[in-house]
Structures
1.
Amino acid sequence: MSQSDLITTFKCTSWLNKFLNRRGLKQPDHRPLYEYHATKEEYDELKRLLRAVGQQEMLKRDQGYAACFTESPRII
């Protein structure tokens, strides 16, 4: 994995960890992302992050990267 791939993975994992920490969780509890009820600000931040990251082939197998995707966000 290149340094660029590692930085990208770190950004996704870091975002996900902060997102979970705000909800009193240390790790995901296997709910779909939308069931954590992201705020509009969190959802917008995630969209910006994923656009900046793009879809690098090596990241498609990374769980932290994959966990940042959802089809039906529920914004509160």
Note: The mean pLDDT is 74.
2.
Amino acid sequence: MESVNGSWDDIMAWMTQHSNMQEPENIISRLVLSAASYFVWQERNNRLFSNNHRTPMVIAREVVRTVRLRMLSFQFKWRPGLRRLLEKWQIPRGNLEIDPG
């Protein structure tokens, strides 16, 4: 998703193209989009109904934390570049299945 600019139309076009692919990057992108949508919606409701405000940085941290926690339940099959992705998200190597093949 690094090639997508920030417009909603471009994000949705990318998601439509890649929604059925089971690559870890695509799964994580879907998780990030889902979590971001949820927390932005939650923030909107908090501001309207409880006069509660969080900064964008706090919301972004909550999105990252939620996606990371979900990723901790995954078992990733080894493939080139996966270790770097797991390190970026601080996922332990124990979540990486190495095929004795």
Note: Residues 71 and 91 are 7 Å apart (CA to CA).
3.
Amino acid sequence: MTIWDQFCDTPGKIRDGAHVNRTCNHLAMYKEDIAMMRALGANSYRFSIAWPRVIPLGGKEDPVNEKGVKFYNDVIDECLKHGLTPFVTLYHWDLPLELFNRYGGWLAKDSIVPDFTSYAKLCFERFGDRVKHWLTLNEPWCTAVLGHGIGQFAPGHVSNTEPWIVGHSLMIAHASAAKLYINEFKRVQGGSIGITLNGDWTEPFDESPETQNGLCSRMVCGSDLSREFYGCNTYTTNTIKAVRTDDEFAGYTTMAFDTPDGGLIGKRSQLGWLRDVPWGFRKILNYLYQRYQKPIYMTENDRYPSRRHDKGRVEYYAGYTQALKEAVEIDGVDVRSYFGWSFLDNFEWASGLGPRFGSVYVDYETFERTPKDSARSLMQVSLWASAPADDPPVFPR
């Protein structure tokens, strides 16, 4: 079990009352799903390994679940059978519940780091002969802030100190697992390892010194955390105002979407926090590449659709992939992947099954899959990326 099982069991934590134990049934239908990915034109599949599926109790001395290991071996082999490159995330927020009960999970650095490193080693040993792209953590900010700061995600803690403790533990765990891979596995297996971080471009509301200072407080301060590449999850662009708030996690600034002329920075979506701003996507790609001088793997990018005929999402993909193309071809940014979020409608954490981010519609009663219009438009990215430089296909606009 994971901390999300317990979180879902707590009344009021999941918006629609959904539970992680019944979502899109990928566990039973992975072969059909992978075949559909390939049929739609995908050339890679980013998925996460559930830590408690392979080590149910989580610890370095705890027994391995060989059935869980076999499942991921089968998924990887099925990807390769269909010509899909497996792109694997080691941790996407599903901490083994036992580790949280034993010592507080990510709150206990000296315990969690060796346990996570041992889990990562098992994955490198069992899957690394075929997996050449590894992500240690998905969006550690969400684990630290949403899980331990505002209580929106599991384990649901509200604190102004825990996020910093958890964030530190996460970074040390990432560094430990990455160092292990680079020192002990990379030479033989020939893969690469990094981390994927969430972040959106922020545009100053005006040119005042106060706004510029607020913008600086929102900039990422870091070192070589991403190791061999930068994994980027990004969805939108904000404006920032020099209006002080009590939100420590936003640098005490005001994040918004309005502009000085009374307009909006981009088209609305069905989600309050997301606007369609392709030029902001191009800007963040340039910023990240200039700052870190590392290849960028786009690991999540999307907008929330609600229908099978999702015109707004088709337009979003057209704008964002055109911005990606310009960043690569005009600006010289080294971008090596583009993953939309996500292939299937699925469990969207505290929002439950309501938001349908999938490119493929899932009937949660029958588990029938139906590709949305955006599924086919997204695959134009794959066609463009694999085309000869002198004869690129028509790109969505």
Note: The first helix runs from residue 3 to 9.
4.
Amino acid sequence: MDSVTPARLVETSCKINENLSSNPIEAKAPTCLLRMTVEEPSTKEDEQPTRKDYVMELPPATLNTLLEDFKKIREQLSNIARK
């Protein structure tokens, strides 16, 4: 039976995009540009793993939701570790 290997996070970077505009109507709220490089395992033994880049633009509300969810996961893992 073949084993399944998950993708591996190789690199991340985060940048705040302020979307500045002299016109207040065109100005947007700042966003977070999150870039991740993921290494996908090869399907054959003689192949090298492939790397894929993913870029996400997260508005403040989405970023807050993501951070809150990470906080909940951390708390759950801490509770499990204490048992």
Note: Residues 8-82 form one domain.
